[in-house]
Amino acid sequence: MTRAISLHDVSKVHAKGVRAVDRLSLDIHPGEFLVLLGPSGCGKSTVLRMIAGLEPVTEGEVYLDGTYANDLAPSERDIAMVFQNFALYPNMTGRDNIGFPLRIETPGADPAPRVDATARMLGIEELLDRYPGQLSGGERQRVAMGRAIARHPSAFLMDEPLSNLDAKLRNHLRAEISRLTRELGVTTVYVTHDQAEAMSLGDRVAVLRGGILQQVDSPRAVYALPRNVFVAAFIGTPRINLLRGVVRAPLDGAMTVSLGKQALRLPEPLSPDHRLLRVQQGREVIVGLRSEAIRIATPAEARPEETHITGLVEHVEFQGHEVLVHFNTGSSPALVPELEAPRPQPRPHRRRREGGVLGRLRERAGSLRAGPVVVLDEPTGPEQPPAPAEGRAPGDLVVRTTPDFVLRYGMQVPLLVDTAHLFAFDQQGERISPAPARLPDLDE
Ligand SMILES: Nc1ncnc2c1ncn2[C@@H]1O[C@H](COP(=O)(O)OP(=O)(O)OP(=O)(O)O)[C@@H](O)[C@H]1O
């Protein structure tokens, strides 16, 4: 029996008022593989531990198959947990580690048949008589998985089970976990900070930031329609390009999004999504462009939905099958505070308290755990050319291309931007365009 797990407005407040999880509501369907994704400290493990009953819920309710479960002991929940550090008993063989919970659950029953069946399923028969100290990391995690599976629980909770393994093994075990959980059809909640892992495993991905659920959706939807700039920036490699723009919508001319020294001209007739931007006339927005929305080509090669800009090559990352080119287009990047590398010290002339809305937003960004997704960096006027921050990639626009382009530092290159794949977010970081569901045609 696999189970439904529901969280209703669940919060966890630790001693000294640390709010690790804030009013989280989530319905996990029976048999679903749900991934909790977010940066370190966003409350993922706390959510898992509350579902397992290892951590009391401060506010809100947990339901298992519709039954109120806040007060159930972990052993009454019929849920198995797999931890990052494997948590095997060092003085027990693989066989005993897998069989131990079975002995506890059903004293007197012989666990051997279930242990053997599980070992066959995982292909770990030859590991059963070894102690954890005699196993590699990947083998230990397989035994730990075996221990969870052998119990035939109604749900699995996995807390970064692959993060202690090297990349190759991680990929291998990821596929194995996916196969096993699908075969068993058991509800699984899987915690990770690795977006690639989340995207490849999850039926749905729940993105957390500062204890607050940002979005829960299929991997395809969180990538294609991120609710806000945080989700857009957290999902996808290379990171989405986020640039500060200003919408210009003159009554008698083409609508553009000004990006500092250049502008993106929105093709006419305007698409329904671009029409939504008209009301932002004169306002600052955050433009999101994934690297695949930009290509190196001349204006003459532009398709109807493409618009032309140029970029100065600042850095070329050769990756074998592809090349990531970092361009300087003279625009200012917008920042997602939690996702940036450490920032450089402010330059002396910026030390004074920053005034205005921008300054206040930035200050709040530094102190807020989960307010609006504040993304604005200081404006960089012509007298302040954008300087790459320490730890951040140079340039303001990363474009993915094939290795056959030979590009060198300092080259000025024509770029075509696919405006059909342009995201726009408001100053709080909420997505404005594309609209969540297509709105009625505004001209109709
Ligand atoms: N016992 C505690 N007392 C006070 N604060 C705590 C306690 N346990 C966790 N926290 C805080 O709660 C927040 C969420 O922690 P949690 O371990 O759930 O995050 P996480 O997203 O799983 O992080 P990671 O990926 O680093 O494991 C963090 O800010 C953490 O410091």
From TrEMBL:
SUPFAM superfamilies from the UniProt entry: MOP-like (SSF50331), P-loop containing nucleoside triphosphate hydrolases (SSF52540)
Segments of this protein annotated with the region Disordered = 335-355, 375-396
Q: In its keyword annotation, does this UniProt entry include ATP-binding?
A: yes
The answer to whether UniProt assigns keyword Transferase to this entry is no
In Gene Ontology terms, what is one molecular function of this protein?
ATP binding
Q: Which InterPro entries match?
A: AAA+_ATPase (IPR003593), ABC_transporter-like_ATP-bd (IPR003439), ABC_transporter-like_CS (IPR017871), ABC_transpr_MalK-like (IPR015855), ABC_transpr_MalK/UgpC-like (IPR047641), Mo/tungstate-bd_C_term_dom (IPR008995), NA-bd_OB-fold (IPR012340), P-loop_NTPase (IPR027417)
* Keywords on record: ATP-binding, Nucleotide-binding, Transport
Q: Which residues form the ABC transporter domain?
A: 5-235
Q: Which domain of life is it from?
A: Bacteria
**Which Pfam families does the annotation name?**
ABC_tran (PF00005), TOBE_2 (PF08402)
Mind telling me what this protein is named?
ABC transporter ATP-binding protein
Source organism phylogeny: Bacteria, Bacillati, Actinomycetota, Actinomycetes, Kitasatosporales
